[in-house]
Design goal:
Four copies of one chain form a homotetramer. With 350 residues, chain A is an alpha+beta fold. Chain A is built from seven helices and 18 strands. In chain A, a hairpin with a 2-residue loop joins strand 8 and strand 9. The two termini of chain A are 34 Å apart. The mean pLDDT of chain A is 94. At the A-B interface, strand 1, helix 2, helix 5, strand 11 and helix 6 of A face strand 1, helix 2, helix 5, strand 11 and helix 6 of B.
Chain lengths: 350, 350, 350, 350
């Protein structure tokens, strides 16, 4: 049953596969009269593109976003905005060997069980390629939020066990890992390099922080801002965990430690991550997502084929040793999409 | 905008406040001909009830579930099942002092900012009382899942920093904390007792495990099983984090460590937590939720009043030192609800 | 799959059967701070009640609406408003003879085919009793619309072939048929009386007119105001047709006749029924619904039993010879609900 | 707020404008393994194309459907199917004169009030061009329904006051008006010709009949099959009325006339139009839609400009004198889409 839409007021529906014609998104509910052009997508799309880090495999993904509908005379029309990003470089020959084998850690097996097939050409719909459409939608979400003094930052808090010791927003775009602490960038590079050499991959933790978010966003009890953020973030393929504010650490604090004291000028601490009772409280919204290591590794693995027979699989060719930097702009987009949705929803009851 | 419904095929809509007439839920989409009576709810409702642990404040919540509609001659009719649980013990006098002050860590402030009021009588809609309706809906979800060989266990993995060293399902109902490791129960009791004495509260981690779940549940890319579980779990008031399988630990594993090898008889490990690409893979579904310490503490706190003036607040009277045991049946219910929803959704495309 | 909710911003979920405990509705998305009490429902509920026309069977339905949740200190709280109307007079003995026979024109057969059962006690969920919950929700919808200078009138345009020759709003509440033309009331009474004597029933046409509706309501291309009105009205059991503005007559007009000329002071005619391109144009919204004759008649009919064997059925006892007057407040409610939903939806994009 | 999606299990989201790059649709929820190719769309798209009747203005719309996603190795993948139909012939020069004037009977005025703009180049999103995407989605819906012995016929029951005297399905494709009665085709042509000569337009009535529909489709009380059909049909721009079975005629029948007697071999009559209590009863589903005359006429009309000043408007150039034949395949598509949605929904509860 239909599961490719997200959001209620600002609603996105994505489509497309890694080795088909392209990926895209229809954005429904965007207010009219917002300036929007294809150039607006360039910088965010570039940030998501593979081939950015020194160790990534160079690819020819240019990820030009084409506006198929919804913009008239340079501004949004109030009608659905369809965006399309054509796939480049879609030779499926290297994937032929995968026609019969399930790749461990990938969705091949579950797609096969559910749909009776799996797209051996790089995962099809389950590929990270799908997130390009999310990033494009995130750009439009940011436009919707322009009337607010909102700023969303996303960055690599940790990669391969190397964690940023402090957060310097200015550093984020100064290094290929979107790490907010320049002091650990070399260590991250080293860990990544070592993984790559051994044909292995590493994961990490991405943090997203939204400052300037007004109080009142979120619709209890199910469409709480926290709940929709959790869903949006967990729906990204590589994510296996999400926490808000103190998150799992809160489980070990006492109430007197975890409660954020309130003062006339604001909250003294922010263990709540900007959300109380599922509604934004005006403080920074803070969330972290656990990103698993990319399952495509160049190391011999135990698997089975379509008929359930045992098999060995050793992938070859180009590969990325970590998805973490690429996930950064994707999570930024998802947070923007959730906030835009709740911003429009809040307006309906004011 | 409407945010009190959850699920698409098995859809629940909850209502009610802590100090109104009661809380309830309408379940829409439940198949017909399933035996259901008011007695079916008794045991699960009892597990959620406060006053269970030796240290909880005794309360008279009997939480009898009344079936208002949807059952005819002892079986579900295919029509909406409305369940209602009357509030007992709803004297609001002790809360009068809270009429003007926001309780730190509670939703008073955000409800006030969003709705122009807050329910000083125990939180109203944001109260844990609301979860009684979820537990009732979870009972019906389990009935829907009866054709499957499914078993859902939920338990306190950790409380106040004390963690179960191993999982013994038989132990869960043998102690008031739903702890699966009898060896740490006394330590948990001690930590809880110490917190209570100091007027403070503690949090913990709840784990839920579903065995016997068929492969194929989950609707990528947004209604992934993992994403809907994350939303369902994060929508519970006390939860600040959720992870699936290896979760945040996966961020520190390599791909070769984290990938679950596949064999003709199943997966060798289960770092995926039973979900690949957002679809169940037939292995156990495993998730953990971080439960924050209850914000109602008997310790003097810094806060503000409705006009933003500084104030001090020291709650008095009965209180629970931890919500963790009560959250256990709630999360069990949410997992059952999500799985029931996806079970019915899967049927629509087979 | 769940089908008992209607609306997106102002969302109602109804439940209940004719011979269960009662019928009810959960209203989700209602803004906060709107005064609401149980007395507010009395007059509209009275209008829907059977036993109003001189020829109706007297019944003891008092239809008192109980507010189960969502109101705090006399105003809406922004939380779901649950309303419940207990059934009175629910002896099912007279229905026992219907346990095995499908009543022609009723939903017995289709419920049996779909759900494996049918509620022989007056139709259960398919009974007109279900509309009581809609009328209650309509009262809340009208409250939501209070900031607008909106007035919704509903009336019996035609019954048993007798049609009102002109529309006098003041007449509507002056006669038991809600007929806007006092000159034809006696004729309607006569036709109804004749039908009743012969054990037969009659249908009619209900017209609803909303004046003062602002331009801009409706969300093309599927959630057009006209489309949602059509769905809302057609979802009422007795309705078999719906038309807006000139409706079916427009099929026989030319473009030059049907187009409404525009002037600085408004539209010169209103063939559009206040809706152009699915969006309200500021003029009166006008719709008409065809109400079929009640299928319960006291005349011998050909039918089958559960096993498909031929049978004869002659109902006995009390019966109403027409549902038309009772449908009037129901359609008024549905129009109010649709307009309230679109009013809140419009606000989200302004 | 988002209003461009329709359906819940088989869910379509359309996008695009008459003078942008094209129109399209994303179909979400289509089961996997259904053969689908771009050639499958050719015949239905051709039937919707303007320029079919002898009197239509020739246009170069080829309406080739491009499959952007969701098909893998010739069969549906279970992933969203995105279809795109490029616009041809989109010179907007002839429309420049309309930049400031609202065309009577069109959505220019209401779009301007709602969105702050209107697409003077042929209506933009409100153009009949939008229905091309519906027809394409209808083709996929028919594929979903292939396991059923279902046949959907749509035809012009009446045009310009000329009504088919009987229904001969074989005649439908034998004449440019999709009229099921060859005996009245010449009269229709004559009426259409006369309208065209005078620069005027005519409307009509389209009937759709689905045979072989299984009993059990429809989800009371709001997502009744009748209610969703009414919404789907009324959401088509030109439609101003919809009726099912006896429809408005039922308002003038008695219960004994209108009830369809049941026999062991089926219903004796079909006043219900195949739907009882909102659920299909296994008999033919029959609905009729009132199609208004096209508002674009070559006759001088009274209107206003953007500032509200009075103006005169006389359109010039090519025009179609009736939309009725073009609406026929669109309504066929909408009925197929609704039935496919309910077919998948029914499966979820079996």
């Amino acid at each position: 049953m239909a599961g490719n839409s997200f959001g209620k007021a600002f609603k996105i529906t994505t489509f497309g596969e890694s080795h088909g014609k392209g990926v895209g998104v229809v954005i429904d509910g965007c207010p009219s009269r917002i300036p929007l052009s294809e150039d607006d997508f360039v910088s965010e799309m570039a940030r998501r593109r593979p081939g950015r880090t020194p160790l990534d495999t160079p690819r020819s993904e240019t990820d030009r976003v084409e506006i198929l509908s919804g913009v008239f005379e340079g501004v949004t029309a109030g009608t659905p905005i369809a965006l399309f990003i054509r796939n480049q470089d879609v030779r499926s020959e290297p994937y032929e060997m995968l026609r019969r084998l399930f790749r461990p850690g990938h969705a091949d097996y579950t797609y096969f069980k559910k749909y009776g097939h799996f797209d051996f050409r790089g995962g099809g719909r389950s590929s990270a390629r799908e997130t390009a459409a999310r990033v494009a939608a995130g750009v439009v979400a940011q436009k919707v939020l322009a009337p607010l003094e909102l700023r969303i930052m996303a960055y690599t808090l940790e990669m391969g066990g190397i964690r940023a010791a402090h957060i310097d927003f200015d550093a984020i775009l100064e290094n290929p890992f979107y790490c907010p602490d320049m002091a650990v960038v070399d260590k991250m590079k080293e860990v990544l390099s070592r993984a790559k050499e051994s044909g292995d991959s590493i994961g990490g933790i991405v943090e997203v922080r939204a400052t300037g978010c007004p109080a009142g966003l979120g619709e209890p009890v199910f469409d709480k801002l926290s709940a929709d953020l959790a869903k949006g973030v967990m729906s990204v393929g590589a994510v296996k965990g999400v926490e808000i504010g103190a998150g799992f650490e809160a489980a070990r604090l006492t109430g007197s430690q975890n409660n954020d004291p309130m003062t006339p000028t604001g909250f003294k601490t922010n263990h709540a991550g900007g959300i109380l009772g599922g509604i934004s409280n005006g403080d920074d919204i803070i969330l972290r997502a656990a990103v698993k290591p990319i399952p495509s590794i160049m190391i011999d693995q135990e698997t089975i084929d379509r008929e359930g027979h045992p098999a060995r699989l050793k992938l070859e060719g180009r590969f990325d040793a970590s998805a973490v930097p690429r996930v950064v702009p994707v999570l930024k987009a998802m947070v923007a999409i959730v906030i835009a949705d709740h911003y429009l929803r809040l307006k309906s009851i004011l």
